[in-house]
Amino acid sequence: MSRTIKIEKSILEKNDVVAVRLRKMFSGRKLAVINIMSSPGAGKTTLLVETLKRLAPRIYIGVIEGDIATDHDAKKVEQAGAAWVVQINTGGRCHLEASMVEKAFNGAPDGLDLLIIENVGNLVCPSGFDLGEGHRVMLGALTEGLDKPKKYPGMFRACGYLVINKTDLASVLNIDVSDYEKEALAVNPDLKIFKTSATSGDGMDEWLGWLESLVIKGE
Amino acid sequence: MHELSIAESLMSLIVENARKSGARSVIKVSIVVGNLSGIVGDSLKFCFDEAKRSTVAKDAELVVDEVSATAYCVKCETQFAVDQYVFNCPDCGEVVIPSGGQELYLKDMEVE
Question: pTM of this prediction?
Answer without folding.
Answer: 0.90
